[in-house]
Amino acid sequence: MEGSRMIRILILLFGLSCLLLADEQSRQKVQVTNTQHLDLPPGGTVTFKNSTGELTIEGWDQPGVEITTSKSTKTFYTSAEHEKGSRELEKVHVAAERHGDEVVITTTAPHHGFPFPNDVDLDYVVKVPRAAHLAVKHGAGEVHFDNVTGDIHATVRQGLITLHAPAGDQHAIDAKSGIGSVTSDFPGSTKRQWLMGHQFVETSQTPHKLYLRNGFGDIILLKIHAPEAPK
Known about the structure:
Elements: H1 2-25, E1 31-38, E2 45-51, E3 54-60, E4 65-73, H2 82-89, E5 93-99, E6 102-108, E7 120-129, E8 133-140, E9 143-146, E10 152-158, E11 161-166, E12 172-179, E13 182-184, E14 189-193, E15 197-202, E16 209-216, E17 219-224
Parallel strand pairs: 2-6, 2-8, 3-7, 3-9, 8-10, 9-11, 10-16, 11-17, 12-16, 13-17
Antiparallel strand pairs: 1-4, 4-7, 5-6, 12-15, 14-15
């Protein structure tokens, strides 16, 4: 009798563990992706207000701007809890509007949470004309500029800034990190700021300007080398 009872207990525990495992495996992050397209006149500006998370800005040969945003929860939810996760994502809004020769991309969320609701990750991939001017005010997270040739004015509170620009481009560069390093493939001079910061400056007479400021994090400036033509 004792042996049969022990077997029933083991079967019951095994069944419960299988149910718990299945429930855990069925949990997923809730994610919403949205893509918008806006026209931008030649020489126009793309402005980012209060972006946060990971922001990637890519230069392309099209005349307009394509904005793809992905919001996802950090928490894993069951299918029954999906609505709860969706409500968390609805707290964060990304709106894009055109005002004359400027496209403004604004991120807003309730003031509780720092900097945004704690359960939301935000990722932007924005394609812009290569020569567009860029103005970025970013909170916490990485910011990447890839193959853009226009003026850039960017401030990041905390994170990493990377820039990949064609090797033949010339810019007047002023890049500074309050706590972090500045590394550059482009010629210029580097000096230490206070105890933990760096500044990199290239005082070229070119009209193209790069102004980069990072409160806490590194800045990396890299050249894009064109592939050699086949012999």
